[in-house]
Structures are given as C-alpha cells and as structure tokens.
Design brief:
Layout: H1 4-14, E1 19-22, E2 27-29, E3 38-43, E4 46-51, E5 57-63, E6 68-69, H2 71-76, E7 83-86, E8 90-95, H3 97-105, H4 109-135, H5 138-153, E9 154-157, E10 160-163, H6 169-176, H7 180-192, E11 196-199, E12 202-205, H8 208-215
Helix pairs in contact: 5-6, 5-7, 5-8, 6-7
Protein name: HTH crp-type domain-containing protein
Keywords: DNA-binding, Transcription, Transcription regulation
InterPro entries: cNMP-bd_dom, cNMP-bd_dom_sf, Env_Response_Regulators, HTH_CRP, RmlC-like_jellyroll, WH_DNA-bd_sf
C-alpha cells in the first residue's frame, strides 16, 4: 500500500496537468509508438498487453487508479513495445516525461522508493506468471489467474469473494496465455465444482482456498496492490 503522504504528493503533482477521458476499448498507447507522455490513472482500469506475430494478445498487467505508466519507456529509455487499452470508461492525466522524472521522481526519495517497490512487486508477479506459463497445465493456469484477480480486485461479501471488475472469458484467456475455448472449458469445470460462478458480469469465488489448491499457487495473504 502507498503511504498516504506519498500518494497525495503523486496525486497533487499530476493534478496540475490536463485530464483526458477515454471510452472502454480505446487505445491510449499503441505498441512501438512513441508515448506522448506519462499517464496517471484517475478512474477506471487500463490493460497493458503485447501482440504475438500471429495477432494473439497477451495481457501483461492491469493498472488500477493512482498508477502511472509507461515507466519502462520513461526510466530505462527503452522504445515502447506495448499496448495500453481502457478496460472501462477511464479518466487519466498526461504529463510530459521530463516533468515527471525531474520534478517528481528524482526530486523525492519517498516517491522514488514507492515506484521501485511497485516495479519489484510487478517483477515478482510476472516471474510467477512466467513459471505457470512454462510448467502448469491449462487448469492450473486458469485457476491461478482467478486467484490473482481475486487477490487484486476481490471484495469479501459474507463468505464469498467477488471480483469487482467484469472479466470476460477472452480477457481471462489473455491473462492465462490460452485460447478462449480452452479457458471457457476450464471455467466450466470450476463452475461445475461450485468453486466459482458468474453473477451478472462479475465472478464470484465460493471457495478461494480450494481454488488455490487447484492452482498450486503459494498464496500470500496480502493483496496485490499494483501488478501481478
């Protein structure tokens, strides 16, 4: 969790710049395009993904409000290779890269530490996902995605967990690195076992511990704040 003072500093900094609105499905940044600045997410969620040579999408990260991106391009000066797409109607602020680096990150050690922490959390989560992509079967991969989404976006309601963002079968498939058909089959198996079910567009988790067992993932009780 970001320290309140640090979070407020980041919010105050970006508040000086113009707000932009995007509709669900709009692309903020295209792969291999030069970003027009650094985006601070005020409202909604943004998906970062890559495209394979045959046009398949692989979701790398989902940004929550108070996140800012693309920091690989900004800090490492590496050309951008990723797409950033609005998962819902969103509100962002876009600031010049040089302003963010010189007036915010380099100017405040606490902000720099918080950004480093975000990057490390993201790297740890990405390494876990790579491990699953290389070693786990389809069922374990889908189960692990549901577990991670529950940790990231889940809200406890009585004895259940509800993932507060609607995820389609295709979006879960993009996270698991599988086809939609295979993902749908595995989700049906979990539904038949009464581990999960859909309530409207939301996923409801009946038994997170059992789902963790099926995913073979090591569950940390702490929520995932930024990336996984």
């Amino acid at each position: 969790m970001v320290e309140p003072n640090t979070s407020q500093k980041i919010e105050d900094f970006f508040s000086k710049y113009k707000k932009l609105d995007y509709k669900k499905g709009d692309t903020l940044i295209h792969g291999e395009d030069e970003p027009q600045g650094i985006y601070y997410l005020v409202k909604g969620n943004v998906r970062m993904f890559s495209l394979t040579a045959d046009g398949k999408e692989f979701t790398l990260n989902i940004f929550k409000p108070n996140s800012y991106f693309p920091m690989i391009w900004a800090i490492a000066d590496i050309p951008n290779a990723y797409y950033y797409e609005a998962m819902s109607d969103i509100e962002v602020v876009r600031a010049p890269k040089n302003d963010v680096l010189t007036k915010l990150i380099k100017n405040d050690q606490k902000v720099l530490f918080e950004l480093t922490k975000r990057i490390m959390v993201g790297m740890g989560g990405l390494l876990t996902r790579i491990q699953y992509l290389l070693t786990a079967d389809a069922h374990q991969r889908v189960a692990s995605v549901i577990v991670m989404l529950t940790k990231r976006f889940g809200e406890k309601k009585k004895d259940k967990m509800i993932i507060e963002i609607p995820f389609t079968h295709q979006e879960i498939a993009n996270l698991a690195g599988l086809t939609r058909e295979t993902t749908s089959l595995e989700l049906k198996k979990m539904t038949d076992k009464k581990l999960v079910y859909r309530k409207g567009k939301m996923w409801v988790i009946n038994d997170l511990n059992k789902l963790v067992e099926e995913s073979l993932i090591i569950l940390d009780e702490k929520p995932l704040p930024y990336t996984f």
